[in-house]
Each structure stands twice: as structure tokens, then as C-alpha cells.
Amino acid sequence: MVIRVYIASSSGSTAIKKKQQDVLGFLEANKIGFEEKDIAANEENRKWMRENVPENNRPATGYPLPPQIFNESQYRGDYDAFFEARENNAVYAFLGLTAPPGSKV
What we know:
It comes from Canis lupus dingo (dingo). Belongs to the SH3BGR family. The relative contact order is 0.20. A hairpin with a 2-residue loop joins strand 3 and strand 4 (about 75-80). The model has no long low-confidence stretch (mean pLDDT about 95). This protein starts with a strand and ends in a 10-residue tail after the last helix. It has helices at about 15-30, 45-50, 80-85, 90-95; strands at about 5, 35-40, 70, 75-80. The protein is of the alpha+beta class.
């Protein structure tokens, strides 16, 4: 299983950049393997992300914003869902992964 994080490398929003760095930094620090998918540099990534975020998780207007998190092709959530899982020590469950022995999350 591969965690895929859809990001925008050239986002003009500092809030989006911070959220992306927060997710990627957490995954790296906890040695959770992932693929970064850039929606700014790759039209196919952007199209795939937009089509695969479920209707009920999309904003009322516009498109879903990065970061968006998937396990393979299964949608896991956006930054707010990730943040809530991290606060509740439930990141592995959020990502659809089995927590390694002795881990807190």
C-alpha cells in the first residue's frame, strides 16, 4: 500500500504550503512511506485528485485544495482530517495502515 499525498509545488498560499509541509514532515519523521503527487506541475495528477475526492468532501464552490491524502486510490482525507487523526493518535488508522509495534500513533 502506498500513501499518496497530492500537493501543489507552486502554491501562492502560505497556508497551503504550511499544511503540505506539516503532512509530509510528519510522514517522513515517522518513516511512513509515501509518494508526493504534484498537481501544479502535472495535469494528470490534478485531474485524478479532483475526480477522486468524494463529493461529500468537496468544497461547496471550486475544487478541493491540497494536501489531499490517499492510500493507493482510496481517499483518506484532507489536512483537517489528518490533523484531527494526529491529535487523537490515530494517524495509522486514518491512513489505513497497521501501526508498527510500540508506536503511539
